[in-house]
Amino acid sequence: MSTIEVNGKMLDLDPDGNLLNTSDWNEDVALAFAKSEEIEELNDRHWVVINYMRKQYEEKGDAPSIRKLTKESGVDTKELYAIFPKGPAKKAAKISGLPKPKGCI
Amino acid sequence: MAEPIEKISLIVSKGTLDGVYPGLIMGNGARMEGIATSLFFTFFGLDAIVDKRMDKITVPTIGNTAMRLPGGFKMPTWLGAIPGMSAFASVMMKKEIEAIDIPPVREFIEMISDSGAEIYACKAAMDMFHLTKEDLCPQVSEILTIGEFYEKSAGAQIIFT
Fold this sequence. Notes:
The structure holds two protein chains of two kinds. Chain A is mostly helical. Helices cover 48% and strands 8% of the residues of chain A. Chain A has a two-stranded antiparallel sheet. In chain A, β1 and β2 (9-12) form a beta hairpin. Chain A is globular and about 35 Å long. In chain A, 31% of the residues are buried. Chain B contains five helices and five strands, in the order βαβααβαβαβ. Chain B has one domain (7-160): 3-Layer(aba) Sandwich (Hypothetical Protein Ychn, Chain: A), CATH 3.40.1260.10. By secondary structure, chain B is of the alpha/beta class. Chain B has a five-stranded parallel beta sheet with strand order 4-3-2-1-5. The longest helix of chain B has 16 residues, at 17-32. Chain A binds chain B through residues 65-68, 70, 76-78, 81, 85-90, 103-105, and chain B through 25, 28-29, 31-34, 100-103, 110-111, 114-116.
């Protein structure tokens, strides 16, 4: 099983490279994942998305679709693709400590 | 491991609900994976980007032997010929599409365009249907000849729908 090291702690990853236990997540974990996805810094807008995704996951058990995400988080499609380049839904889920989204949209 | 797909060109050639959506879903899905994407609308597929027609895409009930009634029973094909059946089936299907969070055609085209995909119209089909740039929705970036389409598709996988 692969792992990610955050503050000296080794955290287990699932086969997609996402956090295995969502409860291992904290802000430093988010930053470590962001760096691994070539996002150097997490700004306010990233956090809007991350917090929204975690809330949705807690309530629904799956990450939201991009459509729902852009409609409800206040971060629109253009911005979402700009701040999470190359695959926003997957990257945002990973940084948020969630499994890869199951939806197609 | 095989090389990941980096660029795709989708051709949408049909103007029915079931003809248009696969291309839109695949195009949006490609952008979500970070794949460079373009959609090329030709023949009746143009209806999906013609401003006055894109909200009125329907599913045909004639000649579709896979059509089922609510409840899952096969629809007798003659039933499809009754006036209003296509409109009825389209309303039902659009409800199902909305229920799984897939947007209506206009919103979907906006979303795909905002995601950074290019949307093109086919010159030959535009001429054939007497359409001009003014008839198209604002997300269409260019009207291309088939030669230009191939030029822009350099290095891409081309998928015909």
